[in-house]
Amino acid sequence: MNHETLSDEHFRIIVETTPDAVVTTNTEGIVVYWNSAAEKLFGYGAAEMVGKPMGMLLPDWLHESQQGSFSPGQSPENRSIIGNSIATICRRKEGETFPSAITVSCWKVDDELFYTAIIRDISERVNNESLIRQTRDFLENVFRATGDGILVTDTEGIIIRVNKAILKMLDLPEEEVLGKHIAELVPRTFHPEPMLERLLEDGFVENYESMWERRDGTCFPIESNIATLQDNKGNISGAVAAIRDITKRKLAEDALRASEERFRILTQSASDAIIFVDNAGKILFWNERARKIYGYEAREVVGKSSAIIVPEDFKERHVHEFEKHKKDSTFNGVMLETSSRKKDGTLFPIEFSFSAGMVGQDTFYCAIVRDITERKLAEQALRETNDYLDNIIKSSIDCIIISDNKGRVRKANQSFLDLVGCSQEAIEGRSMADFMPGQPGDYDCTTGATVTIGEQYFGDISKRMEELFSVGRISGWESYFIRGDGVLVPVDQNTVMLFSEEGEAIGAVGVVRDITERKRAEEMLDRVNSCLLQFGPYMDANIQLAVETAGTLLKGDAAVYLKEGEGGCRPAAGWRLPGNVHETATMPQGFWKAVRKHEKPSPIVMNDLMREPFYSSDPLLQPGGMKTCIAANIVNSSGHAGALAVFYNAGRAFDSSEEKIFSILAQAIGSEEERKKVFDQLRENQEKLLVSEKNLKLFSGKILSIREEEKKRISMNLHDELGSMAISVGTRLSIAKDEIRDGNKDTAVDVLQQMKNFFKQSLGRIRKIAVDLRPPELDIIGLPAALKDYCRRTVQESGVDLSVSISVELGEATVTSETSITLYRVTQEALNNIIRHSRAAQATFKLTVDGNTITYIIKDNGVGFVTDCAGATAGHVKLGVQGMRERVESLGGRFVISSAMGKGTKIEIALPLEHRQELEKELPDVRRAQASPAPTSKEIDPTKVC
Predict the structure, then answer these.
(1) What is the pTM of this model?
(2) Nearest to 294 by CA among 272, 312, 277, 315
(3) Does residue 437 contact residue 453 with C-beta atoms inside 8 Å?
(4) Per-residue pLDDT for 70 more than 60?
(5) Partners of 905 in the beta sheet?
(6) Which residues are CB-neighbours of 810 under 8 A, at least 6 positions away?
C-alpha cells in the first residue's frame, strides 16, 4: 500500500467518523456520495440517496427559492457559495425540518467537476443566536455603564470610540476626545514604544501601568489591558483598551474575551481523544487529547495493544467485545459507556464511539473517547443530594413546604399533610393562603383556647410578605394554620426564597413547626404565675389555691393535698372532693406508700387505680370512681411533707409541660409548708422569749434582794468584827496599861499576847469576806490552781465525807477574766450545793478546751434533786442554778443541768474561748430568744428545782 492510498483511506475513515453529514454531487446536483453521518442526520441510507437529486433534502416550500443553491454547477452565478457557509432549512426522511449550515467545496477528477457539501445540524446554534444577540447587547450595555473606561482606536492610534468612564477620567467632553491620537492623553515624558512593540508582538498587553493627563494638566495613574483588533482576514484593524483609574484601585474589569480560535487540524483540536487501531487491536494513532486524558505520550502507546488502557479485570472481555464490534457494523457510530485505565492505573468512566474502515486489504478502526468522570461525579452527587434532601423532608417532624414564585404549593412532606389534614394531591397547586385563616373572627385552637383573628393579624401577614421579598427570608414568625375542621394550629414559620442563577425568584421553602404544646405550656405557666401572685399572708389559703389551680389547669375531676403527720397521712386541702377535706380522718396508707416510694423528682402517673390494692378502702377514690392519678411528692427542709395529687374518672396522658406545671405547684405547696414551719418556730421562740423575760425579771428582783441582804450581812459582819475588835483591843490595852503601871509585866505580856491572837482571828474573818467578793488567787496563781485550792479548802472546812476529783486541761489557751470569774463562781455554787444537799460521796470537776470552746462538766453521785419541796433551802437551790445559767449565757455559753432520782446530778457548760459581750447588745430580743436552746427531755426547768 503506497502512502497516497493510505492517506486517502485515512481521509475516508475520518469522513466516515465525523459527526457532520458529507454529501458529494455532480454538476447536475445528483448525489454520488453519502456518508454514515448523513444517513443518521437525514434518515436516508446511502442506497436511497445515491443517484437522487440533492433537492430532496429541502422542504417543499424552499424548492423554488433555494433549490438552485444545492446545484452550484447548474447556476454559474451561484458558484460564489463555494467555500462559504450557507444557513438554510433541511428536511429529514420522515418530513421533520431543521435548520442547517452547508459548506460547499468544488473539486475535479479527470476533468469532471464534483461538489462536496458538509451539512451540520445547527438547531442548537440557531437557538443560541438569540442568546448571542442578548450577550452582544449586554456587552454594549457594559461598554456604556461599566465603571472602567473603554477606549477603541484604529490602526493609526486615533481614538474612534470611548465610554462615559473615559470622559469622566479625563474631564473632557466626547467631541474633544474622539479623533485625538492616543499619545495626546499621556504626559510628554512618557514613552509608550516598548508597550506598542509588545502589543504588536503578542497582540495583548495586560495590567500595564502608565499615566494620563487631564485637561487641567493634572496627571493620574492608570492600569490598562490592551488588545489588538483583527478583521475577518486576521489583519490588525485597531486596538481596544480597558482603562482603570488606579488612584482609588477600583475592581478590575473582566478580562477581554480572547479572539476566536483559528481553524485547527481536526484530530489535534478535538475535545475528545481520537485513537486508531489496526485489525489486531494495536494502536496506530494517538492525538493530543488522548495524551491529556490517559497520560501516555504517543510514542509510548503507538504500536502497542489497545489493552494497555483497559482495566485488568476487563481485558478478556475487551478482546471479545472488540471481535464482536469488528463483525457487527451496527455498532458503528453508536455511543457506548464503559471504564478505562490511565497510565498511573487510575480507572475512570468513558463514553466512546467506534467505526471501521478499509485501506486496501487492511482494516482500521477509529474510536472517539470522551472522559465523563466529572459528569458521572456530578450525576452521583446530584443523586446523593436529592436522596439526602428527600430523606430530610420525609423524616422531618417539622412541616416542610416548597412553593413556586406565586405562592402555590408544589410539594410538602407528611408532617404538613398531617397538620392540615389533607393528601398530597389535595394540596398541590393550592395557594399557601388557603391554609391560613382567611376571615376575621373567633376560632377554636388546638391549645384549647379561643383565638380572635382581627385586622392586626392580616396586617402582620402583609408586613411579613414584604420582609420575605425584600430580605429573602423570614424567621421566627408565629402565626396560625387552619385545619380542614376549622381549628387553628399555632405554628412557627421560617421561610427562605429560592432564586435562579439570573437572580429571579422561582419559589420558596418553608419550615413550619407546630407549637401547640409550647403555647399550651405558656398559657398554663401564665395561670400558674397568676396563682402564685395571689398568694397572701395565710399559708393554708395559699395551699388551697395551689390545689385548686392544679385541678383546673390539668382539667382533673378532683385534686387533693395529702399532708404527712405523726398519725400517717391525711387530706389537708382539696378541690371538688366530697365533704370537708380538712376534717377527713387519716386515709389508708396504700396510696401514700405508692407515692412515697417514687424517689424521682418527676411526678408519678397511675393509669389504673381500680386495680391497686388500696383502691377499695380509700375514702377519697372509690366513691368518685377515680381511674387515673398524677401525683408528686412535696419535700421541704425537714424531708417529705406530703403529696399533691390530681384524679380523673377516665384514662389520661400527660405531656412534659403539664408535668412541669404540676411540679411547680407541688413545690409552691412545699414552700408554703416551709413558711408555716418558720412562722410556727417564730411564735414558739416569741413565747420562750416572754417566759425568759418573766424569769429574768423575777431573777433580777431576787438578785437585787440578795445583794441588799449580802451588803447588809457584810456590813454587819464588818461592824461586828471591827466593833468587837475595837472594844476588845481597847479593853485589853487598858488592862495591859494597868498591869504595867502596877508592875505586873508578865500579866501585861499575856494580855498583849491575847490581843495579838484576837487580831489574827479577826483579820482572817475579814480576809474571808474579801475573798468572797473577789478571789485574789485568780490573779495570783491562775484559774486551775484557784479552783483546786478552793475545792480542797471548802471540803476540808465543811467536814463532810466527800471525795473531790478536779481536772483542768487548758493547754496554751488564754481564758479571759470574765470567763475565769464565771467558772470560779459556778464551781463555788455547784460545790456548795453538793456539800449541803446531795449527800454525795464523790464529785468530779473536769475543765477542758476543744478548739474555740471551753467545756466544764460537774458530776456527783448524790440523791439528785427533789422537784416538790419547800423551804428556804429549796428556794436557795433554784436561785443558785438560775444564777449559774444566767452567768454562763451572759457570756454566749450553753448551760444544761440534768438529774435523776438516786442517780446524782450533772452540769454541762460550754463557753466560747473569746466571748463577745457587744454582740448581745446588738441582737434583737427575738433573735436572743431563738439563740437559747429549747429544753430537752433530760433538762430540768430551773423554776422547779429544789
Answers:
(1) 0.38
(2) 272
(3) yes
(4) no
(5) 860, 899
(6) 783, 784, 847, 848, 849
